[in-house]
Design goal:
about 190 residues, alpha/beta, Rossmann fold, six-stranded parallel sheet, globular, binds adenosine-5'-triphosphate, binds nicotinate mononucleotide, Rossmann-like_a/b/a_fold, EC 2.7.7.18
């Protein structure tokens, strides 16, 4: 089986994430795709504003009807800083016979060489990246053994930080993320 993992803070989840997930599922013929919310993403410790519970609830609300998208709460249960290598060791033990793919936005590529235990990580998973508008994919530091694939995705210019800023400025989130996520953000008064 081919299994993909899209890790992130999902603060909040938006259509950029969901379309990226679908693009990769389709183009790489994945059998399963897990969204993996981080307890604390290593390189942006101060950006996340909502609790683990809120971010997980929004992800569930966004995907509960879609059997193709699964959520792994492994990093949330583990807590602390969510290093991908720790999660991938766990997933590799769980799915020893399968091909594992870690999905990232192109903005992550220049930082990849700084990820924890990257030389072990590249042995355990293949990487798939998607370009993002306004984030030109820069040449990245060569990483020995990196298996890197490009997904020809839809180039959706949405980011979680942009949506948090919109809420703060009293602007609507309509058409940026699923209606149920918007209703949850309003009911919990998030990002104000
Ligand atoms: N619009 C998008 N298109 C493609 N990939 C995306 C998009 N938005 C996020 N990603 C990727 O999804 C993963 C998780 O993203 P994350 O949850 O940090 O959201 P974000 O929108 O990048 O957040 P922020 O604006 O707070 O930095 C990252 O690898 C990121 O590059
Ligand atoms: O393992 C690392 O060192 C590492 C460094 C930076 C980012 N990541 C992972 O990349 C994913 C996206 O991170 P971010 O910063 O865009 O929320 C998320 O799953 C992080 O855990 C992982």
């Amino acid at each position: 089986m081919k299994i993909g993992f899209l890790g992130g803070s999902f603060d909040p989840v938006h259509f950029g994430h969901l379309i990226a997930a679908q693009d990769v599922l389709e183009q790489f013929h994945l059998d399963r795709l897990f969204l993996v919310p981080a307890a604390q993403a290593p390189l942006k410790p101060n950006d996340v504003q909502s609790t683990i519970e809120d971010r997980l609830t929004m992800l569930q609300a966004a995907t509960e009807w879609d059997r193709r998208l699964e959520i792994s709460d492994y990093e949330l249960r583990k807590g602390g800083i969510s290093y991908t290598v720790d999660s991938v060791r766990h997933f590799k033990a769980q799915y020893p016979q399968d091909e594992l793919f870690w999905i990232i936005g192109g903005d992550q590529l220049p930082l990849l060489h700084r990820w924890k235990d990257i030389s072990e990580l590249v042995q355990l998973v293949e990487f798939i990246f998607l370009e993002r508008p306004k984030h030109p994919v820069k040449p990245h530091v060569e990483i020995d053994g990196l298996r890197l694939h490009r997904c020809d995705g839809h180039l959706i210019e949405i980011s979680s930080s942009q949506l948090r800023e919109r809420v703060k400025n009293g602007l609507s989130l309509h058409y940026f993320c699923p209606q149920k996520v918007i209703a949850y953000i309003e009911s919990r008064k998030l990002y104000r």
